[in-house]
Amino acid sequence: MALLDKGMKRRDFLKASAAAAAATAAAGLAGCAPSTATDMAETGGSANATTHQVASDAAIIEGRGEWMPIHCHQNCNQMCLNMGYVVDGVVVRQKTDDSHADSFDCPQQRGCLRGRSLRQQVYNADRIKYPMKRKSWQPGGGEAAHGELRGKDEWERISWDEALTYVTDELKRVYAQYGQDAVICNGWRWAPGSAMFPVIGGAVYNTECESFGCWAFQTEALGMYSHGDHPDLMMAPDKYDLPNADTIVLYGCNPAWSQHSSMYWLKNAQKAGVNFVFVGPDYNATAAAMDARWIRVRPGTDTAFLLAVAYEMVRLDEERGDIIDWDFVNERTVGFTPETMPADATTDENFRDYLLGAYDNTPKTPEWATEICGTPVEDITWYAEMAGKNNAVMFLHSYAASRYLGAENLSQAFMTVSALGGHFGKSGHGSAAIYTWDAGDSGYRLIQHVGGDYGYVDNLVGSPAATGPNRNIEGNSWWSSLADGKYLSSSEGPYDLGSSDVVGDPTKLRANTPVYHEAREMPVNPRILVQTNSNFMQTRGNLATAIKVMRAADTCVSFEIKFSLTAQFADIILPVCTHWEGNDDESWGELSWPSPFGDGNGQKQRKDALLAWKPLVKPMYEAREEKRVFREIIERMGYNPDDAYPKSNYDQWLGYFLGMRVLNEDATKWEPVITWTEADNEKYHASYPAQEGKVAFDQFMADGSYVVERSEGDPRNYVGYRDDKLGIGEDGESVVVADPAWPRPSVSGKLEIYCQYKADNVNRIGLNDTPIKPYANYFVPRRGYQETFANWEAKEKGAYPLQAYTPHYMRRAHTCYDNMTWTQEAFRNPVFMSVEDAEARGIKAGDTVRCFNDFGSMLRIAQPMQGYMPGVVGIPHGVHSVFDESDPENIIDRGGSEQMLSDGLQSNYFPQVDGYNSLLIEIEKYDGEPLVEDFERGPFLAAGIDAEGTAAYVVPGADNGQEA
């Protein structure tokens, strides 16, 4: 039998491996050949069986432990399955889903390289082991804080009681002395800790849309759909309809690097003969894998490109017809022509005449656009022909292109091009987002929670509206607003329909459509910053200002798993558990359970899968479950923690699974996923009603997942915007074919190529003297391509001629996972640039280069690429900074954070939207000490606890008088 025979059981293979070391090594279950002279000497100079055997292999072979389920939970939003093999309270191995044979109809829920390296996160040297206090910090504010030493001070270990006393005393002092404007939730508004602040006195929050950019704020007003705050989601065709397309357009997408299951579905369509097109500034890994035609578009110029495409569709249709689907345009859209204007229009301008130049004397021709977006004229014309009505095309976008300043009209322009070709509501056609758990297999959820008593009930009142109106700093001005002591607010909360000056009929708009008011200046006085479930110093931009804000505060508190950059600038660090850790054994001490937060109602899992998870190991060191800590803070402040957290984590965990329902095969009703008996209630100390489901609870936990088996022609398969869309009955149980896709949730009930609500709502904010149009119009954006020139008319380049954007990267999800040595070794921390730009600067692959502009300076390793447009730079997002502060006025980040290169510049029209991809920079070969690889630098936190209990924590690169 072949050693890698797919029919061979894993346990049998491991047994065979013990006798055949080479096979074990080939399977990746143990180390490679000897790497040191000592190894070679001990094995007689050869790699024999003993070299490749480790204790954990034997433990699995001998069955001394058990496989237990755990999913990934960290911000890549796919939540794939991992299994941990636990022996004596230690996870010694990981694997992914192998509970059933993999198939297209019933796929395994496989983890990626990040998730399968999670042991390196849980057992990492930079875990925060104990409550820590910055050595020079003292409570009370003022000079006692010694804020100038934040980021480079030493640390000392303290007890939990000391730590919580410091935190609560400082909160009480700041509330009494300054009020809630001085308390800053330096983390996600929906994180567990954010629920604490409204109970104890309020806070100032942040609200923006990092992931979704300009897609997030007008989606449903335009007639599209938002799943919660996830715009344009669940409306693309599912995996069974992808092969029915002639062409699939991937607009700014790179699922190969996101590493979720969409590549499985896309490759299946490719095998069926579907052609692929990729639109973006670089020819990425997904484009290469799909052999896609590359349509080059410079960063932030997509609206100009799409306007030219629409112009060409009009021109080609007038010349020969059969490009624009006039039946669809006339019946299901408003505002393209004078004859299709909506009833609430306040101007006589229509989109077609705008394209032709009737209002600004500038026809939006390919010749006009190519100067801006860099797309060859012939590619624009080709794209317009491809988008015509006689071609079955799916337009699938990610959100990268909308994370630019100047992208405010991108979502409307994207929808308009799709609508002109009639690519809505038909098999083989589509227009929607392709995003993590919804990527490549879209549509309504086949497994979903029906709510009720089992629902996720944490009182996540951390939304700004809960602590008073306008208590949210919007967009990229987070750090600059905190530094300035004031901010502009344009909405009561992130999704508020309660304003009295709503334009149009708000009853026709769903709750995901925001209502803006005139921007109001609000005070903020950051005296205490509490960081939870986030890492704003590595993700919020404007890092130079962030350092100043953190150093100017009275107190900075950080709830942490690892030594993040935000923790580095804190005064009190509180160690919290990973999602692997919990305690269900009273003999171990206080019972705790990992927070179910992050799972929500299952929205971050694939639509046809439910993943199991449970604590694998006891809490490590002195780490505590996060909500337990927040509950104790609330109690110490004199309030009732049940007001924030009314249900235990354990009860939420059980209710989460027992409340899950699956749509049955003939799509007529929802049925329980989990079978639950009275014996289960006794075993798990619960009192849930018995129910008959698809799989017993214990079997589900052993398998690690339940996956709906589907097939071609399954009535549950999906095409977005189709009239016979399935819906849930009012009783929450019955499924009826009575929730048609039309009318849409816009004021008109149609797709709004002209949207009066959009224009009136946005212009009311008053950020821009030039009003935005009701249709997708072009304007010169801030920090866009034009600003790379000192003289646009003469085409003279300026001091910062390169446009940099910040792609997500294989080795991390934002800042998560980036401290794992395996992924650091596999993927460097590069800056990607075109070969032409590198040669012009004398830069070769592997050179240390300095990336800089007026806001900051950082170092990275150069990686020239043939697939980058000249003038375009890619800086993978999320790295941990290593500061060289030898010149305090000109700090160089040797870690290479792109946040050093940005400031607090806001969107042209939407204050909540950030220009994460709008960086103008220059790059030069660095003549100083070259960078070492991340994995050679060592962990960011090296702990040595001496006899007195002092922690000598070393930050590489920091001036702390100790060797790094």
Automatic annotation (TrEMBL):
Molybdopterin oxidoreductase domain sequence ranges: 127-636
Record-annotated Molybdopterin dinucleotide-binding domain positions: 804-887
UniProt keyword terms in alphabetical order: Metal-binding, Molybdenum, Oxidoreductase, Signal
Coiled-coil zones: none
Entries under PROSITE patterns matching the protein: MOLYBDOPTERIN_PROK_2 (PS00490), PROKAR_LIPOPROTEIN (PS51257), TAT (PS51318)
InterPro entries: Asp_de-COase-like_dom_sf, MoPterin_dinucl-bd_dom, Mopterin_OxRdtase, Mopterin_OxRdtase_prok_CS, Prok_Mopterin_Oxidored, TAT_signal, TAT_signal_bac_arc
GO biological process: anaerobic respiration
GO cellular component: outer membrane-bounded periplasmic space
Gene Ontology MF terms in the entry: electron transfer activity; molybdenum ion binding; molybdopterin cofactor binding; oxidoreductase activity
Cofactor(s) needed: Mo-bis(molybdopterin guanine dinucleotide)
A matching Pfam family: Molybdopterin
Top-level taxon in the UniProt lineage: Bacteria
Family label: Belongs to the prokaryotic molybdopterin-containing oxidoreductase family.
NCBIfam families tied to this protein: TAT_signal_seq
Name the UniProt record assigns to this protein: Molybdopterin-dependent oxidoreductase
